[in-house]
Write a structure and sequence with these properties.
The structure holds 2 protein chains of 2 kinds. Chain A is α/β, with parallel strands linked by helices. Chain A folds into 2 domains: 6-140 and 268-329, Periplasmic binding protein-like II (D-Maltodextrin-Binding Protein, domain 2), CATH 3.40.190.10; 141-265 and 332-358, Periplasmic binding protein-like II (D-Maltodextrin-Binding Protein, domain 2), CATH 3.40.190. Chain A is built from 14 helices and 12 strands. Chain B has a two-stranded antiparallel ribbon. The chains are: A alpha/beta, B mainly alpha. Chain A binds chain B through residues 74, 76-77, 79-80, 83, 103, 106-109, 174-177, 218-223, 229, 232-234, 347-348, 351-352, 355-356, 358-360, and chain B through 66-69, 85-87, 90-91, 94, 148, 152-156, 174-175, 177, 253-254, 257-261, 266, 268-270, 272-276, 279.
């Protein structure tokens, strides 16, 4: 093994430092317009939030000599913040799920993405630019069923959930979280035999079907650890749930896996939007462009085990197997994004109906 | 039988609170001092309770407009929906049932603890007080997860595993109302025990000794003397436990598995998932009114009972 002399190493280091020092003024001059500015953004919690705090923000703040205050929250919570400050916006960039992009646009809370200031938008798969350019995806989770391989085989169809062998063995997603609407759509698809695209408008057929499912339901969960409980023997199967809440347990060796029945997988899309009349909108555009940078997209995907929104990336086999990526694999899974304009309008009724069915 | 002055003017419930004789003297003698002393607490109460509740009641008569704003004409639509859909009546009765069961169970468990704290050896009393208070240092969510492990269905649960070892079970407790009651009793037990211990500690031992001297058994002393005279503490404990249980949403969510929904869970759902603040506010307003009415009725009942028992004892 070749040893590097400390003197040589320090000389190389010195040369590198010198080169960086020479380049720095050019870089900082280029971004001098942002120096000293402070920007407030809303991000997600969990592994994705941690990645942004540790691996994105420090570099961005250094490159633009600015300060970014990041506040964690959920989609509807973030929308609430935007509503509260609609007249005098405080946030510049907000991370919301795809359902939130529709709400935010409808309520006039966001501006179109500034394409001219976001060159990385050209790398994004067109299907992940939402609401005529008001929101862009950053990470895509695929939602399906999670199951304990020691208790059951993967399901080929959602219709199998109604079989007697699953009596009190299904941990169904509760009404509080977004995937509960996938339950309704899947039930409507089973009841009518129609694809999700049509079934999402046929919820009336879902209610009697869901009532028939009740004897098989062990609980309606509302926490992110439901997959772990199934892995520990609390039920045999559960969901629908986003892959990002299941695969981390699988990677750690828990007895859990996911299946995507033939009716198709649901897409859970984490997006970013630019707040309407946002302070420091230019800096916000730079930040959103940075989030679509290939290196950031790669890191975010590997951290959250959610597919990136841009093309051209490659992953280690153990990670690649867990991602709905590239685009051809998304098509194979039948990755489906609901019509959120419709779902958001009826969601309150859907929650009420589900509660009527399942609450004792 | 001639009645003593104490009999003619039985001590009100609030007189059982520590420091009662001292504070009123100051307040009666110096109104300015009274205002200065009470002012901050009243302001705090108005700021963190009266105003928010007023705002909440106002929201409950508004509508969530399509643009996300709260507004429109004042309407009773949210209350009509609450009355018209049977789901909300079911949830209301579930909430009241769970709160009542929790309160009764907590009272039954708290009396022996309070007796030892108030009447046992000093060291045992201190130790028990620490043991009763210690769980308060642990977050409710953590405790709920602990109960999930204990009550887990199948052999994965500690309780079922233990029952299986002695040839019993299994029992299905997790994701039922009983799981919520068990978790709530554990979480809110200190709120029952401490006021009870304080009330029992203020009972003149001579009264109990007199009953024993007259031949009363231990149970009779408790039933005829200790229980009636500790009613003020029981009233405070019941109010706290009932109100806190009725408003809780973490325990029903984690232990009830959404089959057992309570009003608090519905409020959380309407505010955070549906973003229908007016309907969420209507549910919360109904919850506040019902819980307050039940508490007031209960306090009145206990006070009347206490007065009559105090009269009998005197």
């Amino acid at each position: 093994m070749t040893k590097v002399s400390p003197l040589l190493a320090s000389r190389r280091g010195l040369l590198k430092a010198g080169a960086a020092a020479l380049a720095a003024p050019t870089f900082f001059v280029r971004n001098a317009w942002a120096a000293g500015k402070t920007m407030q953004i809303g991000i997600w919690g969990g592994a994705q939030g941690e990645f942004i705090r540790k691996s994105v923000l420090p570099g961005f703040q250094r490159d633009f000599d600015c300060k970014v205050d990041a506040q964690q929250g959920s989609t509807l919570g973030q929308i609430g913040l935007l509503r509260a400050a609609k007249e005098a916006p405080k946030f510049t960039v907000m991370f919301v799920d795809d359902l939130g992009v529709e709400i935010a646009k409808r309520e006039g809370l966001i501006d179109p993405l500034p394409r001219d200031k976001m060159p990385n938008l050209a790398k994004v798969y067109p299907r992940f630019i939402y609401q005529e350019g008001y929101g862009v995806a950053l990470a895509i989770s695929s939602a399906g069923l999670f199951y304990n391989p020691a208790a059951t085989k993967p399901l080929e169809s959602y219709a199998q959930l109604w079989e007697p062998r699953f009596a009190r063995k299904i941990s169904l997603v509760g009404t509080k979280t977004t995937p509960s609407v996938f339950t309704v759509i899947a039930a409507a698809a089973v009841a009518t035999g129609k694809p999700y695209k049509e079934a999402q408008y046929l919820a009336d057929h879902a209610w009697p079907k869901l009532a028939e499912l009740k004897p098989n339901v062990l609980n309606l969960y509302g926490t992110d650890d439901a997959a772990l409980l199934v892995a520990q023997g609390q039920g045999a199967i559960g969901g629908p749930e986003y892959s990002k809440y299941v695969y981390p347990y699988k990677l750690k060796g828990a007895s859990i896996d996911m299946c995507f029945p033939k009716e198709g997988a649901f897409a859970g899309v984490n997006c970013q939007v630019l707040v309407k009349n946002a302070p420091n909108a230019d800096l916000g555009a730079e930040f959103m462009n940075r989030m679509l940078d290939p290196a950031i997209q790669q890191g975010l995907a590997e951290t959250a085990l959610a597919a990136p929104a841009i093309g051209g990336l490659s992953f280690k086999p153990e990670i690649a197997g867990l991602l709905a990526y590239p685009e051809s694999k998304m098509d194979e899974l039948g990755l489906f994004s609901p019509d959120w304009a419709h779902i958001n309008a009826v969601r309150s009724d859907w929650i009420e109906k589900m509660n009527q069915i399942f609450v004792a | 039988m001639s009645s003593s002055p104490a009999t003619r003017n039985p001590t009100p419930l609030t007189a059982a609170l520590p420091g009662r004789p001292f504070l009123p003297r100051i307040l009666a003698g110096n109104p300015v001092a009274a205002l200065l002393l009470l002012g901050p607490a009243v302001l705090f109460f108005v700021a963190v309770f009266v105003l928010p509740v007023g705002l909440m009641v106002r929201y409950s008569f508004l509508q969530q407009l399509p643009n996300g704003a709260l507004g429109g004409d004042l309407t009773l639509a949210n209350y009509i929906r609450l009355g018209a859909v049977d789901l909300y009546r079911t949830v209301l009765f579930t909430t009241l049932r769970i709160s009542l069961l929790t309160t009764v169970a907590a009272a039954v468990l708290a009396y022996p603890l309070a007796m030892v704290i108030a009447r046992g050896p000093a060291m045992a009393g201190r130790l028990l007080t620490v043991l009763v208070i210690a769980p308060l240092l642990v977050n409710v969510v953590v405790r709920a997860y602990g109960w999930r492990i204990i009550l887990g269905n199948g052999n994965g649960g500690v309780l079922n595993w233990s029952l299986a070892q002695i040839g019993l079970g299994p029992v299905e407790l997790l994701y039922t109302e009983w799981a919520v009651v068990i978790g709530s009793v554990q979480v809110f037990l200190p709120m029952m025990t401490l006021p009870l211990a304080a009330a029992i500690g203020r009972i003149d031992r001579a009264v109990e000794d007199a009953a024993r001297t007259l031949g009363a058994t231990g149970f009779a002393v408790f039933r005829r003397v200790t229980l009636p005279l500790s009613l003020p503490g029981l009233g405070v404990g019941c109010t706290l436990v009932f109100s806190l249980t009725a408003a809780s949403f973490i325990l029903p969510a984690l232990l009830g598995g959404s089959f057992t929904k309570m009003l608090g869970t519905l409020v959380e759902e309407q505010i955070l998932s549906v973003f229908d603040w007016p309907f969420g506010a209507a549910i919360a307003s109904v919850m506040v009114v019902i819980v307050m009415a039940i508490n007031l009725a209960y306090m009145a009942l206990v006070e009347r009972r206490f007065r009559s028992r105090a009269t009998e004892v005197a």
